[in-house]
Write a structure and sequence with these properties.
Blueprint: E1 7-13, H1 17-28, E2 33-37, E3 51-53, H2 54-59, E4 67-71, E5 73-77, E6 84-87, E7 93-96, H3 98-111, E8 115-118, E9 120-128, E10 131-138, E11 141-152, H4 160-163, E12 172-181, E13 192-196, E14 205-210, E15 215-222, H5 226-239, E16 250-256, E17 264-265, E18 268-270, H6 286-306, H7 315-341, H8 344-356, H9 359-365, H10 375-382, H11 385-400
Parallel strand pairs: 1-2, 1-11, 2-8, 5-13, 11-18
Antiparallel strand pairs: 3-7, 4-7, 5-6, 9-10, 10-11, 12-15, 12-16, 13-14, 14-15, 17-18
The structure holds flavin-adenine dinucleotide.
Length: 408
């Protein structure tokens, strides 16, 4: 039964993982929370591969029921030459059924009394005298919702942030993905395949990740021409006999590669991909979004209790998430920029170095080298002479860049 309330403690814009997580946490603390989601339901296809680490699954108790499968290795295909196989003894990465995960995360929040408004698009947000007013387009009808604070968890590419003067993603990449039928249920003997090279995915990489039985997700992130490169990859996988048909529906999405300079303002926080809390190397944003959603909920708890929801009072959110992710986001972004200037020949050489210097072997053995935390591996790769010579100028200009802003 829907409660007859149009005024809440907290309105969350966006019912993705970050939005549902922050909503759930706040409702569990006893606050009255609404999630406003523009989609009519959460059961549609999501342009996301759904790879998350075991660390993420365990920390957030993600149920097995939304996990397509676990994988314990990947085959990395450099621009030329033989693939490199990386394999751990035990599965480290789960492939989530992204649509099911979104739904179950929303259901958990609903059980904690969060009210979901589906098919509702937030057009405008105003803040006055400590109240937030959200103008919502509900199937063509304009309704107004009010709250004490609003959390923006709208994912990639929202206009709302610009309208609120918070700016947009400082850097981003576009993705394209399709679900395909595979001949070999596991996609490959190693599970996941990752393809590199300027002719495959300029600036980034492409992948084939086994998902549901007999299916795989084929996708890429790239700086340009995603549809062209994905079609080309699909054709090549079909000609190799790895996938059955290229007549598939392609979905498109984007990932932020740099965090917003400000992720809080009076009566407002920004969380998840909307805030740029995304791993710049892989474009993975689920885990970092969940971590930051928890930090946001804890900051809001104190602020709601004291009744002080000013930007100053919410600075603890920015401080805490910068402290947790700053090193990862900065070094990951540096590595990404460095990768982009390398020629295919140099990328192939880097793969050779990863093997000859024992980094790949360590990736397989060392539990500290994780799917989520890349800064230490990057530091090791950066230490190689080859890098110092080839990408030294990028590294120096990167060092000169200011760290993520200090929350005052
Ligand atoms: C091709 C591709 C592959 C990816 N693969 C992975 C991966 O393997 N692992 C990983 O961790 N991450 C991956 N990501 C990134 C991941 O999908 C996102 O980081 C993650 O979904 C972010 O969650 P979120 O809750 O912040 O935003 P989202 O999941 O984008 O949710 C935002 C929600 O807000 C709603 N919304 C937007 N604007 C409004 C509005 N004005 N009013 C109301 N509702 C609104 C949207 O409909 C959406 O439901 C991938 C991304 C792409 C593009």
């Amino acid at each position: 039964m829907t409660r007859k309330i149009d005024s809440y403690d907290v309105i969350v814009v966006g019912g993705g993982p970050s939005g549902s997580q922050v909503a759930y946490k706040l409702a569990a603390m006893g606050y009255i929370v609404a999630v406003v989601e523009k989609k009519a339901s959460l059961n549609g296809v999501v342009c996301c591969t759904g790879l998350v680490s075991r660390e993420c699954v365990e920390k957030y108790s993600i149920p097995e029921g939304v996990i397509h499968r676990w994988v314990n290795g990947a085959s990395l295909f450099p621009p030329t030459g033989k693939p490199i196989h990386v394999q751990r003894d035990s599965p480290q990465v789960a492939v989530l059924n992204r649509s099911a995960f979104n739904q179950i995360w929303a259901q958990r929040a609903q059980k904690a009394s969060v009210e979901y408004h589906f098919g509702c698009y937030i057009k405008r947000i105003t803040r006055e005298k400590g109240k937030v007013t959200a103008e919502v387009n509900r199937h063509g009808e304009i309704i107004t919702l009010q709250s004490r604070v609003i959390v923006i968890a709208t994912g990639f590419g929202t206009q709302l942030l610009d309208n609120l003067g918070l700016g947009g993603a400082g850097d981003f990449a576009m993705g394209a993905q399709a679900e395909v039928e595979t001949k070999n249920v596991n996609g490959s003997i190693y599970g996941v395949e990752v393809y590199f090279g300027k002719e495959v995915a300029p600036g980034f990489f492409a992948w084939m990740v086994p998902s549901a039985p007999g299916k795989a997700l084929v996708g890429l992130l790239a700086r340009r021409d995603n549809p062209f490169y994905l079609r080309k990859l699909l054709a090549s996988l079909a000609s190799e006999g790895k996938i059955i048909s290229t007549d598939v529906k392609i979905t498109y999405g984007g990932v932020s590669l740099k965090p917003l300079p400000h992720t809080r303002s009076d009566n407002l926080l920004v969380v998840g991909t909307a805030a740029g809390q995304v791993k710049p190397i892989t474009g993975g944003g689920i885990y970092f979004g969940l971590i930051c959603a928890d930090i946001a909920a804890n900051t809001l708890k104190t602020a709601l209790e004291t009744g002080n929801l000013s930007a100053h009072a919410l600075a603890g959110y920015e401080r805490a998430w910068h402290k947790k992710l700053n090193r990862e986001l900065r070094s990951g972004y540096w590595a990404r920029k460095a990768y982009e200037v390398l020629s295919d020949r140099q990328v192939t050489r880097v793969f050779g170095l990863l093997q000859s210097t024992g980094i790949i072997a360590d990736l397989e053995r060392n539990e500290d080298m994780s799917f989520d935390w890349h800064a230490d591996v990057i530091a090791r790769v950066m230490g190689q002479k080859f890098f110092t010579k080839t990408v030294g100028s990028i590294r120096d200009s990167f060092k000169r860049e200011k760290p993520l802003g200090d929350a005052k």
